[in-house]
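The protein record quoted in full:

***
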Amino acid sequence: MGDGRSIRVWALAAATLALAACAGTVPEPRTTANGPGDRPWSPSGLPLPQARPPATVPARIDPGINRPPPGLEPVIHEIWRTFPGRTGIAIRRIDGNWSLARRGDEFFPQQSVSKTWVAMAALDALDRGQIALTDRVRITPDDLTLFHQPLAGRVQREGNVEMTVAELLETAITGSDNTANDSLLRHIGGPDVVRRYVERHSLGRIRFGPGERLLQSRIAGLEWQQRYSVARNFQVAREQVPMSVRRMALERYVADPDDGASPLAIVDALTRLARGELLSPASTRLMIETMGRTRSGPQRLRAGVPAGWSVAHKTGTGQELAGTATGYNDIGILTAPDGTRYAVAVMLASTTASIPQRMAMMQSVSRAVATYHGQ
């Protein structure tokens, strides 16, 4: 679908909400790319109502706890169907028993979404008495990474910097600083510590890559050199890589990402975090409050919810090549004014949509969750 028609569909998403309320649950599409498949469609463009199985819960139980609000899934499906590129969406009610997804079990590049697992592994080490929030971590020019790293300017001015674990955690999550995140990762013992945390808690289809420098170099068809951490040296070196090599490296990454995670695994992990199943009460509170101060991606999921809702989230943004963006994501916990919580993940493996269109799509997902809340 062309970008013009797509943006009109997203803009009309709110108008379709009331119409979709009469529609039933839509089965997960079996197609390998976003598209309508071969299912019949109503004149409105929304899926025709599907037969519902008999109720399996007592009538006295609030049905909103055990199933998505009627009409939410068709609207999410339409958002997913009309967006150009390979898109994954998952939503789970944290205080209930339901989830819905499109491409929910597929691996998508996480990019900086993976900082979530570094922070949680660090807080787990804190809970185990292995580190302290007051630990001081030394950062030198040899520790700098690439892309978004505001901390690099301070290191370059001062020669080396010391920050506490608490400061690194705050900077990595709220500012998505790559050097802060890699420094925190180094302090807790490296990528294997994060992988063991994921495995120990059975978080499922969540991978953790080799760290920012090696990951981004491989995606660009390069081998990491520390000089790439300075100024725009990485971008200059990347431009010298033959286009065929860059394209092959990027396509390999998108098809089987070293840092891949499935949208359903992510919302399940966020649900367990919010329920206090993965960290101590104090660390759970610190993790969610820190995500609530995230400054990156203010026009993604956060911008779609009305006043009175709160959003604790983590964004991710990958490399682009020849008009195709990869790894453009936002995941988070949306909390309604009445305290009901939803875990949401929107992940774009690859898309040709513009940045405003990507943000509008994410807003339409969180707006639909808020609109159908309580129904």
The domain at 113-253 is CATH 3.40.710.10 (Beta-lactamase). The chain is about 40% helix and 15% strand. Strands lie at 86-93, 99-102, 108-109, 136-139, 161-164, 260-261, 310-316, 320-321, 324-335, 341-351.
